[in-house]
Amino acid sequence: MPNAQNLSSEALATDAVSGAAALSICESLLLALNDHEVLPEREIIGILHDAATAHANHPVNGPGAAFHAKVAALINSIIDGGNSVRRSGT
Question: Which domain range does residue 69 map to?
Answer without folding.
Answer: 7-81
